[in-house]
């Protein structure tokens, strides 16, 4: 007769991994708080001219659009071709 094993697989993440995930979450929280502060402090509207188009928008909107254009450009130029 064989006794049943009461071994339960360890479902807890190792201490090192748990700290790494927690640090990532804290960094994300800090970045979101900084982004909210940036938006609140940059609500002044500015007129932006590009070729024949003029647009008036809040500073944070203009800077966000410029940032996204940079991210897309970097992604397109950084892709490896096979």
Mean pLDDT: 78
Tally of helical runs: 2
**Alpha-carbon distance between the termini?**
60 Å
| Number of spatially distinct domains | 1
Low-confidence stretches: none
Biggest β-sheet description: 2 strands, antiparallel
- Give the topology string: H per helix, E per strand: HEEH
Computed structural class: alpha+beta
Shape: flat
Within the largest sheet, what's the order of strands? 1-2
Fraction in beta strands: 5-15%
Helix percent reads: 55-70%
How many extended strands?
Answer: 2
Radius of gyration: 24 Å
Write the layout of secondary structure elements.
Blueprint: H1 15-41, E1 45-50, E2 53-58, H2 59-78
Antiparallel strand pairs: 1-2
Architecture overview:
With 82 residues, the protein is of the alpha+beta class. It has one domain (15-78). Helix content is 57%, strand content 15%. The chain contains two helices and two strands. The protein has a two-stranded antiparallel sheet. β1 (45-50) and β2 (53-58) form a beta hairpin. The relative contact order is 0.07. The mean pLDDT is 78.
Short summary of the structure?
The chain is of the alpha+beta class and 82 residues long. It has 2 helices and 2 strands.
Keywords:
single chain; alpha+beta; two-stranded antiparallel sheet; 2 helices
């Amino acid at each position: 007769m064989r006794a049943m094993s009461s071994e339960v697989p360890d479902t807890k993440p190792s201490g090192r991994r748990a700290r790494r995930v927690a640090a990532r979450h804290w960094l994300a929280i800090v970045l979101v708080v900084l982004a909210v502060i940036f938006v609140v402090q940059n609500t002044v509207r500015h007129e932006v001219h590009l070729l024949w188009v003029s647009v008036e928008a809040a500073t944070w909107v203009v800077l966000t659009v410029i940032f996204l254009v940079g991210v897309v450009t970097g992604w397109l130029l950084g892709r490896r071709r096979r």
